[in-house]
Design brief:
Elements (H helix, E strand, L loop, with lengths): L3 E3 L1 H17 L1 H20 L5 E2 L5 E7 L2 E10 L2 E9 L5
Parallel strand pairs: 1-5
Antiparallel strand pairs: 2-3, 3-4, 4-5
Helix pairs in contact: 1-2
Length: 92
Amino acid sequence: MLPVRLSPRTLADRDRLFAFLVEMSPQVADRAMAVLQDALGDIGKFPRLGRPGPPGYRRLVVRFGQGGYEVRYRIVPDAVLVTRIFHTREDR
C-alpha cells in the first residue's frame, strides 16, 4: 500500500466541494467526503485502479448521486500524489 498525498490544490478542491454541498445538506456533504476518502484509500491500495488520463496522470471517477467526482493523480516514487478533485459536471 502506498501513502496518498494531497496537493495544496487538492485540499482547496475538497474544501470547495464540501462548502458547496454543505449549504444544501450537511448530511450529503459528509457522505460525499466519506465516499471520496474511501476512493483515496482504494488508490493507495491499488494505484493503477484509475484509467490513464493526461500524460503522466491517472483519473478515477467516483460515482456519487447523479454525477460523481474525478480524482486526478500521479504515481510518484513511494506515494500516490492526488493533484485535483472535481465534480464531473463542473465546467473546468
